[in-house]
C-alpha cells in the first residue's frame, strides 16, 4: 500500500504552520534542506577516494537546493545554455560541465567563454563546431566525448539512454574520426569519456556490470589510440523506487562494491566521476495538495485536491501511482464529506482525465480540508511540469 503513514514529524509541523499562513487552500512544495544535506554528506562519505560526485541540475535547479549541495559536490552539470547561465549566476564556486544533445553554436560559445570544466561532445558535428569556435575565439576548450556503446548482455533499466540506438553520444565506430579531427585542433583538450546509459537503475549488480564495461572499453581505447591520462564520467541514473521506497538504489552497497571493482580493474589511479540527479534530490521534496472535494462518480471515489499535474507532472511522466500520505487538517472543515477505509483516485484541478496523481488507492480516512502529501517530489517534479496550462496559480515554495 502506498498510503504509508511515515512522514517525519518536522514535515507535519511545517505543513500545518504553512497552512495557517494561507488565505487559500494549501498547495505547496516543501523542501527539507537539512535532510538533503545529511543525504548528500552520506553519499559523499562512502564514495571511493578517486570518484567525484557532480549534481545534474536538471533534476532540480532551484537556488536553495544548489546552495545546499555546493559544499558537498565536486561540481554541477548543465544541459542547456539556460542551465549554464543559471548555475553561473548562483556563484556556487564549483566547476560546471555542459552536456546534452543539439547544442547550439551560441551555447557552445557560452560554455567556452565561461571556461567550463568540460563540454560533453555528443556528435562529430558538435566537435566541428567546437573546433571552429576555439579558432575564432582563440580560446581553449576541454571536452569529454560522450559515447554510446554496445553493452552485450547487460540488461537495460526502465529508461535506457544508450546501449541501444538513441540520439545520445557518439557511436563507437566514430571514435577514430573524432580523434583524428582533434589532431588539427590543438586548443581542444580531450579530458575523458562520458557515459550515461541508464536512468531509473535499481539493480546494483547490473550497474556494476555497466561500470566494468565502461572501465574495460576506455582502457582498450586508451591502448589502441595511445591516449594520455583520462577521466571517465560514469553518468547518473541511480534510481528511486516510487512503488517501494524501501528499495531505492542501494548507494552504500554500490559504493562498497565499486571500490572492489576499481581495485579489480586496476582503476585506482584513474579519476572517475558521477553526475547524479534524481537520487540526490527526490527524497527531500514534498508536494502538498489540500483536499477541495470528495465525490463518487459511477461507483468510484475521487479526491480532488488543489494543484495537479501542471505543478507535479512526475506521476504522469512516469506513468505511476505516486506515493503519498494523508495528513489530517487541524482546521475544522466548513463542509465535510469524509470517506474511510475506501478506495479512491487522487486528482488535481485540471479539466483532463489525465490529471491523476494516484489511482484506486486504499485510504484509511480523508476529508475535505485534509492534505495529500506526495513524497519523493524533489526531482523532476515542478521543473518538468506544464505550469501554464489553465493559468492556475503556482504553488507556494517552502524551504526549511
Ligand atoms: C547526461 C545525463 N547525465 C545525468 C543525468 C541525471 O540522471 P539521473 O537524474 O537519473 O541521475 C541525466 C538525466 O537525464 C542525463 O541525461
TrEMBL record:
CDD domains per UniProt: PLPDE_III_PvsE_like (cd06843)
Cofactors that this protein relies on: pyridoxal 5'-phosphate
GO terms of molecular function: diaminopimelate decarboxylase activity
N6-(pyridoxal phosphate)lysine: residues carrying this PTM: 58
GO process annotations (BP): lysine biosynthetic process via diaminopimelate; polyamine biosynthetic process
Active site, per annotation: 351
UniProt keyword Transport present: no
UniProt keyword DNA-binding, yes or no: no
Domain of life (superkingdom): Bacteria
Positions of the Orn/DAP/Arg decarboxylase 2 N-terminal domain: 34-282
Keywords assigned: Pyridoxal phosphate
Assembly notes: Homodimer.
Name of this chain's protein: Vibrioferrin biosynthesis protein PvsE
Organism of provenance: Vibrio coralliirubri
Amino acid at each position: 500500500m502506498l498510503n504509508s503513514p511515515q512522514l517525519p514529524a518536522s514535515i507535519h509541523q511545517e505543513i500545518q504552520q504553512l497552512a495557517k499562513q494561507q488565505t487559500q487552500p494549501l498547495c505547496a512544495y516543501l523542501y527539507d534542506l537539512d535532510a538533503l544535506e545529511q543525504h548528500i554528506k552520506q553519499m559523499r562519505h562512502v564514495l571511493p577516494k578517486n570518484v567525484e560526485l557532480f549534481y545534474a541540475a536538471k533534476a532540480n535547479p532551484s537556488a536553495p537546493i544548489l546552495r545546499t549541495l555546493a559544499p558537498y559536490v565536486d561540481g554541477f552539470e548543465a544541459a542547456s545554455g539556460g542551465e549554464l547561465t543559471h548555475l553561473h549566476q548562483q556563484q556556487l564556486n564549483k566547476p560546471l560541465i555542459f552536456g546534452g544533445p543539439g547544442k547550439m553554436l551560441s551555447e557552445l560559445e557560452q560554455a567556452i567563454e565561461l571556461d567550463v570544466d568540460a563540454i560533453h561532445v555528443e556528435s562529430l558535428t558538435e566537435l566541428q563546431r567546437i573546433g571552429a569556435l576555439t579558432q575564432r575565439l582563440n580560446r581553449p576548450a576541454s571536452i569529454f566525448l560522450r559515447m554510446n556503446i554496445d553493452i552485450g548482455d547487460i540488461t537495460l533499466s526502465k529508461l535506457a539512454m544508450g546501449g541501444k540506438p538513441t540520439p545520445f553520444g557518439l557511436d563507437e565506430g566514430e571514435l577514430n574520426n573524432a580523434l583524428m579531427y582533434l589532431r588539427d585542433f590543438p586548443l581542444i583538450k580531450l579530458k575523458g569519456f562520458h557515459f550515461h546509459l541508464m536512468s531509473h537503475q535499481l539493480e546494483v549488480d547490473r550497474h556494476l556490470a555497466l561500470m566494468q564495461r565502461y572501465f574495460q572499453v576506455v582502457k582498450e581505447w586508451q591502448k589502441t589510440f595511445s591516449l594520455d591520462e583520462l577521466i571517465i564520467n560514469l553518468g547518473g541514473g541511480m534510481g528511486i523506487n516510487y512503488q517501494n521506497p524501501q528499495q531505492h538504489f542501494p548507494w552504500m552497497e554500490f559504493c562498497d562494491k565499486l571500490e572492489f571493482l576499481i581495485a579489480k580493474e586496476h582503476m585506482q589511479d584513474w579519476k572517475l566521476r558521477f553526475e547524479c540527479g534524481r537520487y540526490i534530490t527526490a527524497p527531500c521534496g514534498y508536494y502538498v495538495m489540500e483536499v477541495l472535494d470528495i465525490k463518487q462518480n459511477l461507483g468510484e471515489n475521487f479526491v480532488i485536491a488543489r494543484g495537479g499535474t501542471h505543478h507535479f507532472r512526475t506521476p504522469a511522466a512516469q506513468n505511476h501511482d505516486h506515493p503519498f500520505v494523508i495528513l489530517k487538517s487541524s482546521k475544522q472543515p466548513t463542509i465535510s464529506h469524509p470517506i474511510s477505509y475506501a478506495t479512491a483516485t487522487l486528482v488535481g484541478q485540471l479539466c483532463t482525465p489525465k490529471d491523476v496523481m494516484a489511482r484506486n488507492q486504499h485510504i484509511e480516512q480523508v476529508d475535505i480540508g485534509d492534505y495529500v502529501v506526495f513524497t519523493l517530489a524533489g526531482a523532476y517534479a515542478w521543473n518538468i511540469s506544464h505550469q501554464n496550462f489553465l493559468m492556475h496559480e503556482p504553488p507556494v515554495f517552502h524551504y526549511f
